[in-house]
């Protein structure tokens, strides 16, 4: 199909076919090696497909290859993850993971870094005393280079590692399988590795780190995206109410409070 023939009504038809599994069946029939089950795409997955196509068309428009980009009817996403890992929970999971994964796990939890970016960090990006890392723009989500100050705990761990120029700092051997096993052992099998990034955002905020600094550390470019990650737990809300009451004092006289009971 010619790009110029892609219109909003056609995109709606495309979405409907993805939701009904029609296109997935065609792909399966034309690709005998395709082993994935034929199932309807979720709204989030469809939106990622549409976003990729829209980005391609915007690039073509900027290059003067097409004159306009149609409206893309994006779908509502109700499956946004809200999981995060409490510190005690993280320690339990860590105790069930093999030692070679500990540096990576601690880095993800402390920095809120993406797994993909962390695995691209090589030893020449780490200072000689292992107190800082300088990440190039190409591996940072917001495409801005950043120098990270590492925690003393992580510095101590990295100093024990063998440095080899050009080689990854973090060993991710069997990462997914080991994570799945460890979360089951820790009785929280629903947690994802990406929940460590959400937890990193929340931990930075709870530690009193200014939003602009936290966003820089984790590579979040916009505040709206960062806020989605900096999840507020019920315990956080309770702590906030306790702090408020401690600051303002009680609003009712003692006798009135007893009468309420």
Describe this structure in words.
With 261 residues, the chain is mainly alpha-helical. It has 2 domains: 3-62, no CATH class; 87-235, Orthogonal Bundle (hpI Integrase, Chain A). It has 13 helices and 2 strands. Strands 1-2 form a two-stranded antiparallel sheet. Helix 4 crosses helix 8 (175-185) and helix 9 (195-206) runs antiparallel to helix 10.
- Please give the order of strands in the largest beta sheet: 1-2
CATH topology of the largest domain, by name, is hpI Integrase, Chain A
The overall pLDDT average reads: 85
Residues in β-strands, percent: under 5%
Q: Please, how many helices?
A: 13
- Main sheet specs: 2 strands, antiparallel
CATH architecture of the largest domain, please? Orthogonal Bundle
Please identify the top-level CATH class of the largest domain.
Mainly Alpha
């Amino acid at each position: 199909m010619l790009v110029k023939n892609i219109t909003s009504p056609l995109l709606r038809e495309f979405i409907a076919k993805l939701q009904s599994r029609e296109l997935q069946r065609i792909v399966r029939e034309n690709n005998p090696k395709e082993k994935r089950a034929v199932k309807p795409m979720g709204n989030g997955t469809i939106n990622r497909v549409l976003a990729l196509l829209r980005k391609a068309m915007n690039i073509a428009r900027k290059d003067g290859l097409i004159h306009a980009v149609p409206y893309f009817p994006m779908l509502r996403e109700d499956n946004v993850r809200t999981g995060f890992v409490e510190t005690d929970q993280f320690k339990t999971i860590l105790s069930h993971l093999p030692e070679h994964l500990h540096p990576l796990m601690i880095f993800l939890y402390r920095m809120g870094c993406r797994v993909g970016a962390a695995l691209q960090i090589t030893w020449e990006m780490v200072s000689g005393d292992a107190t800082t890392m300088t990440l190039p723009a190409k591996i940072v989500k917001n495409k801005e280079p950043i120098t990270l100050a590492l925690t003393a705990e992580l510095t101590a761990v990295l100093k024990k590692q063998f440095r080899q120029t050009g080689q990854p700092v973090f060993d991710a051997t069997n990462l997914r399988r080991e994570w799945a096993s460890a979360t089951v052992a820790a009785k929280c099998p629903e947690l994802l590795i990406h929940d460590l990034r959400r937890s990193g955002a929340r931990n930075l905020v709870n530690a009193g780190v200014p939003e602009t600094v936290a966003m820089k550390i984790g590579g979040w470019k916009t505040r709206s995206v960062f806020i989605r990650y900096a999840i507020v737990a019920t315990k956080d809300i309770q702590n906030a109410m306790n702090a408020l009451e401690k600051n303002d004092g009680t609003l009712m006289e003692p006798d009135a409070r007893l009468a309420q009971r």
